[in-house]
Design brief:
Radius of gyration: 19 Å
Largest sheet: 4 strands, antiparallel
Helix content: 25-40%
Distance between the termini: 63 Å
Number of strands: 7
Strand order of the largest sheet: 1-2-4-3
Low-confidence stretches: none
Structural class: alpha+beta
Strand content: 15-25%
Number of domains: 2
CATH class of the largest domain: Alpha Beta
Shape: flat
CATH architecture of the largest domain: 2-Layer Sandwich
């Protein structure tokens, strides 16, 4: 009969790499391409749903931060100028830090609520409430 430690080690080695990771939330990466003078992000709706945020809110933030016109076309976002994928992904990371991740417990289990005229980031994991700067 094998010891508990040996059995535990065997079980851990049998796990796939994805389950060994400690974080359960990964910031989604934008998948897109450039068409002429426009940039098309083909997974925009999927990014918004993974972040559990309204598409319009994320759209407004990205358009302001990237200083470009744009619109949602079905499942994709069409930006009015050429934008590098690294810049788009860095702006999505900033959005996540500002509007998704709880400042207290650093978990993504949050939602944006409007109380009176103030936007509040409410965390479902720890119960914390934080006001959001309404730069959008």
């Amino acid at each position: 009969m094998e010891s508990y430690e040996n059995l535990l080690k065997q079980a851990y080695e049998g796990l796939p790499e994805k389950t060994k990771e400690k974080t359960r939330f990964e910031i989604p990466k934008a998948i897109g391409h450039i068409q002429g003078n426009k940039t098309v992000i083909s997974n925009f709706v999927a990014i918004a749903s993974m972040l559990r945020r309204d598409q319009k809110h994320l759209l407004k933030y990205l358009l302001r931060e990237l200083a470009t016109p744009g619109s949602i076309d079905g499942q994709r976002l069409v930006l009015g100028r050429k934008v590098s994928p690294s810049l788009i992904n860095s702006k999505i990371n900033q959005y996540v830090e500002e509007f998704v991740i709880c400042p207290e417990c650093k978990k993504p289990d949050t939602e944006i609520k409007k109380e009176e005229r103030v936007l509040i980031l409410k965390c479902h994991a720890c119960g914390a409430k934080h006001t959001i700067k309404t730069r959008i």
